[in-house]
């Protein structure tokens, strides 16, 4: 309805406003089309009436079976002598916890002083909850800590005289019982907790091998086998960053575990649903699309096949895909039969596995296996701060490789920053303005040399040797658990980009609600080559005498 307004300059101004003549709003919200022939013609021009002679899926029948993992075993144990035959299998049940806690953890390492004090404090806490605090003096008399060496005051030195030694408690509880009577119930609760936080102290099951460490210190990688029915999957270079299907390959020559693995057949009838995601093309011509996602603005090159396929799926074929959910158990190898799909016309279709006749199609397929979806029982959990950090790097100017230990955790649970400690140490006498001569420059004491040793005419390996220079004690250089005396590393494990090896605590929660704690040893790419500044036979006016 037009409204008229008179302007001061003598002109009239007209404004059109849609004013409803009634008090109801249904007519305005109906959005009636007054020219339906034009609207139909536009729909025809945009191809909305171009249908396909096919129906939509309304029912899918899924048949198959899942083979559960039954056992695992270490395939490489570092410096231990190789056994005469394959190592024995260790039974494993996915319901007991994540497999990462067994493959990555430091089970061979005993608890440090910090963990022993923490275990003793928890025993005192259980005594207080049970109303048996009066027996604490007897417990301390029987399970007291040895005198702690002198040092700065910390949590260990403060609590050690007031709590029992957890290692001594565990020895008696795993044997004949506590030496203090009347604490059987408290001891049972405590020993269950202790075996969870310190699995190395738990008694091994019958038939379990003594060495279960999968870590190879000469490569800083894990090597292990997994038995799924009549198949064995081998992880040769597992870096400790979470088990997944791409971490293993099929080992056709290995023999599986003798125990029969559980096979779970399944039959499901589900209703397929269309795939929905942000930025999907609108189903109707009059529908407004979401402008927050713009696939056309993606930065992609002509050789970036992955992104091009993703954009083509999202903008062209996105509304032609249907989703059929299927739950498979953790720690299983699932194989499917052809899926029977029933459409809206009542016709049935057999959907075969993608790439069944194409050997180059290997998406989500383990190398060496023809089919099957491998779901490892992995629980990566929450990863804590680094307990130890070692960088493997090459120094081309000095023609040597280095193992740079920037930090480690001592026996009392304190994180030691070796770089900061080196910078605080005195660096020698002041420079001589006349000039000075040095046999070699000073290298920080946390840079440990890796000297090449020729093994054959075509292969060498790096051996860890003491750093001999004034002011450095070779016996105090090695700390932590990643490096040890007479350590050596394969040459190919120190590439030009280097490698970073760390120890981190992990806290994971399994599907049954249980908590699992372990220390993960992980290997990642480094930051490139480094320079230690090592030079020999130098004369510099600003150089200090070593």
Task: Please summarize the sheet with the most strands.
Answer: 11 strands, antiparallel
* Rg over CA atoms: 34 Å
Structural class call reads alpha+beta
Termini separation comes to 97 Å
Count of extended strands:
26
Question: What share of the residues lie within helices?
Answer: 10-25%
So how many helices?
10
Characterise this structure.
Helices cover 16% and strands 27% of the residues. It has helices at 26-30, 36-45, 100-103, 113-129, 136-142, 155-159, 166-173, 184-197, 305-315, 418-424; strands spanning 2-6, 12-16, 57-74, 90-91, 215-216, 221-228, 231-238, 249-250, 263-270, 273-274, 322-323, 332-336, 339-343, 348-351, 373-375, 382-383, 388-395, 400-409, 415-417, 436-440, 447-454, 460-464, 488-490, 499-509, 515-525, 536-540. The strands form 5 sheets. Strands 3, 4, 5, 6, 7, 8, 9, 12, 13, 14 and 15 form an 11-stranded antiparallel beta sheet that branches. Strands 16, 17, 18, 19, 21, 22, 23, 24 and 25 form a 9-stranded antiparallel beta sheet that branches. Strands 1-2 form a two-stranded antiparallel sheet. Strand 18 (400-409) and strand 19 (415-417) form a beta hairpin. Helix 4 (113-129) runs antiparallel to helix 8 and helix 7 (166-173) packs across helix 8. The longest helix is centred in the N-terminal third of the chain and has 17 residues, at 113-129. The N and C termini lie far apart (97 Å). The model has no long low-confidence stretch (mean pLDDT 82).
Which features does this protein show?
single chain; 546 residues; alpha+beta; 11-stranded antiparallel sheet; 9-stranded antiparallel sheet; 16% helix
